[in-house]
Amino acid sequence: MTLNGEHHRPFARSPKGHTKTFMLLHGCKRQLLDRLVRAKLATASTYRVERGRQIEITRIKLTEAGRATLSKAIRPVVPQRFRYDGKPPED
Q1: In angstroms, how far is CA 52 from the centroid of its own chain?
Q2: Cα 80 from chain centroid?
Q3: In a structure prediction context, what are the per-residue pLDDT tens digits for the chain, which is 91 residues long?
Q4: What distance separates the 2 farthest-apart alpha carbons in the chain?
Q5: 5-76: which CATH number, 1.20.1050.90, 2.60.15.10, 1.10.10.10, 3.40.1480.10?
Q6: Cys-Cys link to 58, which of 20, 31, 39, 53 (CB 3.0-4.6 A)?
């Protein structure tokens, strides 16, 4: 499964995960969420709340393996002139 920095945004600020609706509204595709869960990179938990009627809510949360995979996918590429090898940049 190929992940990129765009996939990280909805997960970035919430260690508790987000609702599936939130994730869909922020650009994640249903297929991606399903694949993350099947690959055990995320968990999906469903619960019901009653607000005049019962509403089913699904929360998606990255596992440690999912966080590691995403952190590798979004690791910034450092341009050659900013690499820290002790040598001055060549222009």
Answers
A1: 33
A2: 28
A3: 556 555 556 666 677 888 898 888 888 888 988 988 999 989 999 999 987 889 999 999 988 888 887 777 665 555 555 555 656 556 5
A4: 68
A5: 1.10.10.10
A6: 20
Taking the CA atoms of the chain, what radius of gyration do you get in angstroms? 18
The H-or-E segment that residue 25 falls in is helix 20-25
**Model pLDDT for residues 20-38, shown as the tens digit of each residue:** 988 888 888 889 889 889 9
What does pTM read for this prediction? 0.65
CA distance 29 to 19: 13
